[in-house]
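Sample 1 of the test manifest.
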Amino acid sequence: MTDDCVVYVIDDDSSVRAALEDLLASVGIRVLAFDTTTAFLTHGMEDVPGCLVLDVRMPGQSGIDFHRSMAGLGINLPVIFITGHGDIPMGVDAIKHGAIEFLTKPFNDQTLLDAIQNGISMDQERRRTKAEGLALHTLWSSLSAGEQDVARLVVRGLLNKQIAAELNVSEITVKIRRAQVMRKMDAQTLPDLVRLTEKLALSS
Amino acid sequence: MTDDCVVYVIDDDSSVRAALEDLLASVGIRVLAFDTTTAFLTHGMEDVPGCLVLDVRMPGQSGIDFHRSMAGLGINLPVIFITGHGDIPMGVDAIKHGAIEFLTKPFNDQTLLDAIQNGISMDQERRRTKAEGLALHTLWSSLSAGEQDVARLVVRGLLNKQIAAELNVSEITVKIRRAQVMRKMDAQTLPDLVRLTEKLALSS
DNA sequence: ATCAAAAATATACGAAAGTATAATTGCCGT
DNA sequence: ACGGCAATTATACTTTCGTATATTTTTGAT
């Protein structure tokens, strides 16, 4: 489950960081702790599944503000907020913006561990989905411009003859390109190709 | 936007109900207010877009408990919680379970109105999606058992010959059934049929 | 049991798809 | 200008698909 993964902790309170490091070490999960969001960004992220335990209130950038900026920074880690001084709207908004948990200190250790396990699972799943989308996009990119043209019209259901007219090429050229599309996209049948392009459109 | 829709209010405090009725009447939205969840269930729901403003703490069944039971009752209304005595975990859990807002009294009128408009829009969208899925399911149901068999294998990419062998019928029968499938499903091309069955699988 | 409707099958034909071989065109670098 | 090299096109053939017509089988109702 937690083969190789990291939990990032950002909290200005060193005693909290130490406590979390101990807690997660006790269950064999690697921890990288920082006292500011800047320190976290400077260190960078490892390319392994993980999640982020984030303090709400900190000197410098708050955890709330950092959370809002994460998408723009290309950081998609699941976020678990911890706080000693939160209020209801803050917690509600955090969850509405995608945080997976919002815990108030003092919190139950097991509750946090459960949230972390959940976050790591979500990140693993996100990475799987992302990898599939990337692989699919790579296949598509291996098609020449003309082959992509043909592929688009094929999955629209046009006949080879119609595609040829649309693209101002001969029907035999369409057949050649079409065969190349099927080979390069590793599609055994036309329905396969349709499904591949549907996934491609969704993950665009 | 709010052509014909209803906001259901469940709150044991008659002054709150009156205030909400006034507020929503001022913007021309119809209100149905109840003092208990039982009263709401007894009255039943209208078949128009709407959302539910739900008090957290009430005599009898609490709003929180009712929210958890809604899916089992087949009620998919967007829920907006209002409360005077909530805490952070309660608000966080409510949102995690799908509530679209969790407001603490006293709340800003406009905040509630925005949430309600958002809830109504979501319900409209849900109804659109549901109607599409239902229409698609109706088309599929219009296929005979044999036609459904053929359709399933067609979208898997099997040849008519292979389908015939699989179903122990003649190839000509497959052709007839296949033509019926295309006609009944209103699919002009094979890619169309593939996409229809994909949607069907997702909304099953 | 019998009749009528529906489903399945047989036969036949034209259009489309897939593939192979060969010829042609267009483009790029030397 | 020239020689490759990839893309396009032409030709030919086989398989598959779609459809129409006619026949047989099955099903269901009275």
